[in-house]
């Protein structure tokens, strides 16, 4: 597959309009690619699994060999602001990069990462009255606070901390 035969262009979308733009392009017969990432976000005091664009406001447009690029039609598509340009030159994206992003999307869907803390996980307290201490995660108390166990004077003491004050400790073998 020669990268000169496959033309990928980079489009700049209106805020939070990437999916709309992708759908509108599909309705016009164009293929596009929108890399997405799935992660945990705090929404309305609840942690939720959300999927959002990996590159907000950007969309990759594929133009197969022989298909004419109609810039004005694509620019007037709902959700699209314009092509990304370098001066007057339209930004082209190597096919290899698109293939790499596609492979990573497939791998993430097959092996999603679970970033939630589990009972017994080691955490570092990064600020607050217990800043700098190492602790063990015990349980989540709602969505904003957690109970951790801190070793003090040879005993494990429970402490309630804000979730923003703790960070999972990285293991050497992960």
Secondary structure blueprint with pairings:
Elements: E1 7-13, H1 18-27, E2 31-33, E3 36-43, E4 46-53, E5 58-63, H2 71-75, E6 80-83, E7 85-86, E8 89-90, E9 92-93, H3 95-110, E10 122-125, E11 134-141, E12 145-152, E13 155-162, E14 166-168
Antiparallel strand pairs: 1-5, 1-6, 1-9, 2-5, 3-4, 7-8, 10-11, 10-14, 11-12, 12-13
Description:
A hairpin with a 3-residue loop joins strand 11 (134-141) and strand 12. The chain has 174 residues and is an alpha+beta fold. The two termini are 36 Å apart. It has two domains: 7-110, NusG, N-terminal domain (Alpha-Beta Plaits, 2-Layer Sandwich), CATH 3.30.70; 122-168, SH3 type barrels (Roll). It has helices at residues 18-27, 71-75, 95-110, and strands at residues 7-13, 31-33, 36-43, 46-53, 58-63, 80-83, 85-86, 89-90, 92-93, 122-125, 134-141, 145-152, 155-162, 166-168. Strands 1, 2, 5, 6 and 9 form a five-stranded antiparallel sheet that branches. The protein has a five-stranded antiparallel sheet with strand order 13-12-11-10-14, with no helix packed on it. Strands 3-4 form a two-stranded antiparallel ribbon.
């Amino acid at each position: 597959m020669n990268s000169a035969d496959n033309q990928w262009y980079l489009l700049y979308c209106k805020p939070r309009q990437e999916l709309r733009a992708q759908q509108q392009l599909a309705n016009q017969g164009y293929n596009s690619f929108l890399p997405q990432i799935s992660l945990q976000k705090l929404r309305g005091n609840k942690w939720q699994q959300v999927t959002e664009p990996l590159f907000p406001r950007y969309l990759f447009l594929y133009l197969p060999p022989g298909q004419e690029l109609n810039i004005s039609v694509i620019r007037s598509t709902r959700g699209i602001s314009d092509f990304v340009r370098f001066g007057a030159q339209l930004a082209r994206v190597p096919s290899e990069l698109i293939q790499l992003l596609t492979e990573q999307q497939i791998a993430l869907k097959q092996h999603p990462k679970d970033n939630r803390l589990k009972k017994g996980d080691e955490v570092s307290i990064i600020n607050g009255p217990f800043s700098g201490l190492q602790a063990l995660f015990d349980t989540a108390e709602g969505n904003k606070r957690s109970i951790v166990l801190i070793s003090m004077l040879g005993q494990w003491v429970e402490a309630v901390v804000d979730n923003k004050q703790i960070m999972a400790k990285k293991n050497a073998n992960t």
